[in-house]
Amino acid sequence: MSEMKDPRQIFGEALVEVGEKYSNLIAISADSSSGSGMTPFREKFPRRHLEFGIMEQGVIGFASGLATTGKMPFVVAIAPFVTSRPFEMFRNDLGYMKQNVKVVGRCAGISYSDLGPTHQSLEDVAIIRTIPGVTVLNPGDPVEIKRVVHAAAALNGPCYIKLGKEKMPVLYEDDYPFELGKGVLVRDGKEVTIIATGSVFPRAHAATEILVKDGVDVRLIDIHTLKPFDREVVIKAAEQTGRIVTVEEHYLAGGLGSLVAETLARAKKSAGIEMIGIDDQFASNGPYEELLGLYGLLPDQIVKTVKEFITEKVPS
Amino acid sequence: MLTPQEETRLKQIAVKVRQNVIRQIKAGRMGHIGGALSIADIVTALYFKIMRIDPKNPHWDRRDRFVLSAGHKCLALYAVLAERGFFDKTVLDTYGSLGSKLPGHPDMHKLPGVESNTGALGHGLSIAGGMALGLRMDGIDSKVYVIMGDGELAEGSNWEAAAASSHHRLANLLVFVDRNTLQISGRTVDVMSYEPLEQRWRSFGWGTRVIDGHDLGMIVKASSEIPFEEGKPSVVIANTVKSKGISFAEDRVEFHYWKVKEGEIEKAEQELLEAGRRLDL
Questions:
Q1: Is A136 helix (H, G, I), strand (E, B) or coil?
Q2: Closest residue to B120, CB basis, from A26, A63, A92
Q3: How far apart are CA A131 and CA A120, in angstroms?
């Protein structure tokens, strides 16, 4: 059994690491500091931690203005309140102004399962990826969270980092191959490709292990960067396996499944695509595992979907 | 604060700035003229008397910043930047053309001297507040100046920024509210009331003054005396006249966005020429 780690705590550790490396880095809280794992940063760099209260539109503009003076703000809060609520500020003040601001949406997807749709974030990738020049990152492993935070800090430009809430297993070694904008080929295979992203990557990983044990030759790809998107790895998967199953804790509209379909359509490649995620509905509320189960995101359900899919006829 | 000679000089420049505004309209045949002309005197005072800037070094880290929150008034910004020498005046003749460096709302990546991409209302004050905070963190004594429209004040995000600016004690921040009293649908206070305006700002923790926004002496005096109250951001409520300086357009809502009719440009040019002559320009 892999060790389980809290993504917010890992993010907080990573923020201290990049804070040590970049003296211009400042942390911005919208009444969201301790809940985002930023307490260690605040304690270590009290003068570089700014509080704005529950001011989720204005805080993006302030971050933009700070960035014009050479600062690198990390704005961290609950995902919908830094994406859909201040979308126009994100678009204009960060995207259009090309400012070096990192927005981190935590407790994304349906991980605030009990709190209901107001606090869930199932459209963040869809809307933020329409903003030109914004890098969209969605790590699926504690080690990957750290790599993503370091990569975002090294990049001069606006980024969105999406984080879950539930503890995640450590699946990667510290030196695993990470490259911004490139998918990670976790397992090669010829029969079907599972492409997963973010918080549900571990479940896709567990499903892959079961499928392999059951004799299905699965290729597993972890997509930590949704923009710029690794088209090559998708096209190769389509050509070599013919079938792709996408797994994401996001609306099917505009997320990873859409990206894969868009990529193949634009490359004039055909493949069978099965998308696992949340379709056109506000998600329900309740315990997280049970909620994931409603949308087919548990490992056994992913296994079943894949097994059924590989018996279907797909375009060649 | 201003000697009579200085005041005359600034008045002459304000005429040139208005002429630059008309020059752009002449090129593009339409544009947001009303608000551009109501702030022409304020931007003239800022760029020719108040602000610490170097047109040859627009990214100088010790410069004062100017954020035009009401981005649609950008014809005045372009006009004053050209007059101050940030770019060649012939650029003004490209207004309205494909890919012009002078979009209908300013783009900092297209034109030297533009500090932020405003236009969607209710963004500028937050951006300016971030600038003021960042400069203070670096120990730089630069100031940040903002012009907001009075109609713009209906955007709630402004009041987030107003609260945060006083909370963070941004004494290096000065806002002008261009109270020209008109917006597209009519009188601002009829469309969405903001009165009592000065009390609103005071209750948000700002130092306030109310002036005639066309009186260059008063603009300079107020700008030179910030912070109005120790440790607080400052706001000047500038009473202005929409389309100030063009008699047939003054205080008329139709000239919020001017679609030029036959003969109007020539008439405007003539009026400004005469205004200049009266100042021995």
A1: strand
A2: A92
A3: 21
CA A55 – CA B88 distance, rounded (Å): 41
User: Which CATH number do you get for residue A259?
Assistant: 3.40.50.920
Task: Provide the Cα torsion B186, B191, B192, B197; round to 10°.
Answer: 30
Task: Give chain A's largest Cα–Cα span.
Answer: 61
Task: Read off the pTM.
Answer: 0.97
pLDDT per position as a tens digit, A30-47: 999 999 999 999 999 999
**How many residue pairs from chains A and B have C-beta atoms closer than 8 A?**
102
Interface of B with A in 92-131 (CB under 8 A): 107-109, 115-117, 119-120, 123-131
Looking at the fold, whether A148 and A194 belong to one and the same domain comes out as no
Which residue range forms the structural domain that includes residue A25? 4-169
Which tokens sit at B45?
């005072």
Mean pLDDT on A142-171: 98
A124 to each of A138, A226, B143, how far by Cα in Å? 11, 11, 36
Residue A177 lies in a domain: no
Q: Which residue of A has its CA nearest to B166?
A: A52
According to DSSP, the β-strands at B65-68 and B144-149 are parallel
Based on the fold, state whether residues A111 and A253 are members of the same structural domain: no
Quickly state the pLDDT bin for A314 (edges 50, 70, 90). Answer: confident
Give the right CATH number for B4-278 from 3.20.20.70, 3.40.50.970, 3.40.50.2000, 1.10.1740.10.
3.40.50.970
Number of domains making up chain A: 2
Q: Encoding tokens for residue A38?
A: 């930023």
CATH number, residue A86: 3.40.50.970
pLDDT of residue A206: 98
| CA-to-CA separations, A153 to A71, A100, A157, in angstroms, rounded | 11, 9, 9
Name the B residues in 51-90 with CB < 8 Å from any A CB. Answer: 61, 65
Q: Are B257 and B30 in contact (CB under 8 A)?
A: yes
Q: Are residues A18 and A163 in the same domain?
A: yes
Task: Sketch the domain layout of chain B as residue ranges.
Answer: 4-278
Q: ipTM > 0.95?
A: yes
